[in-house]
Structures are given as C-alpha cells and as structure tokens.
Amino acid sequence: KAGEQAAEAAARAAEQARELQDAAAALLSRTWAEEEALRRRAAALREDLARLRKAAANAQTEKVHEDLDRASCLISDGDIAAILPSKAHGTFLKLLLGPVNLRARKEVQLKVKEEYNSYRDRTAIVFLGFPMILLFLRSWLWNGCFPALPVQLYQAWLLLLYTTLALRENILRVNGSDIRPWWVCHHYCAMLMALVSLTWGIKGQPDCARKQNRYQRQRLYTRIALGKAKRMDVVWGETAGVEGQLLLLCPILFLLQVFEGYVGFLLLRTAHRGIIPEWQVVVCGILLIAMAIGNFANTVDTLMVKSRFKAKMKKSKSKRDLAACTSPTRSSLTNSAAGA
Question: Do the domain assignments include residue 329?
C-alpha cells in the first residue's frame, strides 16, 4: 500500500512538472513575441531619429535638439536599451566569454556598477598593502633581499587584478558606460607589465642589493599608482565634482603622470647603458612612457569635455530632463585618477 501511495505521489509530481513546463513555455513564447515587437519598433525609431538629426543639423531651434537628445537618451540609456541588439564586443570579451549578449536591464546594470566599485575598493587594500609588507620584510627579515616566491605571487595577483578590471570595464561599456577606451587600454598595458614581470627573475646573493635595484625601480610604479585606489570610478556623472576638488586633483594627477614617464625614462636609460640589459627593462620602460603620455592626453581631454558639458547644461532649458537621462554607468573625471 505504501508503494502504491508513493507511485501516485510521483505521478502527480510528474503531471505538475509537465503543467509547469507548458505554462513556462507559453509565457516565454509570449514574452519573446512581445519583446521582438518592441525591438522592431525601437530599431525603427532609432533609424528615424538618425534621419531627423541629420535633417535638423542646421536647425536653429533649441527645442528640436532637446527633443532629439531626450529621445536618443531614452533609447540608448533607458529600459529600451536592454532589448536592443547588444553592442559589438571587443576582441578581449570575445576571447574570454565568447559571442554572448552582455546587455543587462537597468537594475542589473546598477548591480554590475556597484559590484565593480566594491571590487575595486577591496582590491585597493591588497594593491597598496602587499608591496609595503614586502618592503618592510625586506629590511626586517630578508636582509635586504626579496625572495622570488612572494614577489612572483604579487605579480601574478596583479595580472589577475588587471585582467578582472579590464573584463568588468568592457562589460560596463557594453551596458552604456562611457568609460574612455584609453582607460581600458591602460589596464591592458598594466596586464602586459605584470606578465613581463613574471618572467623577470629575482636574484639573490651575492651583491643582492645591486641586482634587485631593478625591482625597486619597477615598484616605483606601484607608488605612482596610489591614485588607482579609485580607478575607473563610475559613481559620479560628468556633472559631478566641485571646482575645489578639481583644483586639488588635477595638479596631483599631472605630477604623477610626469613621474610615471620619468620612471620609464630611467628604465630605458638603465638598459641603454648596459647596467641592466634584460629585455624586460626595455618593455617596462616603453609601457610606462606610453601610459604616461596616454594618461596625460586623456586627462586634458576629460577636463575639456567636462567644461563643455557644464557650459551646455547652464544654457540648456531642460537641464533636469537631460540629467535624468544620464546613464547610471557614466564615468567621471576620476577615471583620470585610474590612469595616474
């Protein structure tokens, strides 16, 4: 009798599962059909907006441009964007994740942004604390010499860190963030530096201090990167930031960028004079100089864009509408701190 009851219960469970399957399939079918209809309407409206924008290129009416901007903003940064075809992925995302659709709905976009900021803040502690611990142990326990294992572990962690940050930043860009491509490229360069450093042997005695001088020079880059504690900050919009903050931030950024290029120059000069002839010195020197130049150029460009945006907002009669249309994953001037 117990066996018959178990069989009947199993049969009822199987029937319920089939009913749920049919209901779920019907729901997904209706949802897909409705979403496809909305997708076609959105694509058609986007094409119409593009034609209207060309036609109104010479229009003198402020209202025309405001209406077009508002409509474009809703399509590109609102809930409509979640059902539009995903933006083309870069090679980096295709290599790591394949051709998947990474476009998320607005509430998910906010979670992605918040998790990115949280991850960046958590890793900043290790990013700054690990080399400080190494330097302390070098003088207190290791008699002026770095053992190879902890140094290589730190370089491997840096490679993982920059790879993860670049991956998350690419996903943010797919979801509407206007993070400048250079800041992502900056992390590609940092990934390459970490990879090169893994091949850069740490030698011990004799004359350990002289042989490991190259490591100390390279670690100057870590001290330069103090500004990376807030790398790729996507919390503020382009309208955020007060003048007092900029007056303090900009000189520090430019000073760090000049120092970054100077360290790269020192590495190249060291290799040229034959003091440390390894190829890693040349590669790291070139990367540091390239990053310093790119950081400086993009910091200046960001300041100019910010200034023009503020001027436009002051002139606009619909400032509140434009601000409400700003994407939640907008980047800010603090992106410059990421490249410092």
Answer: no
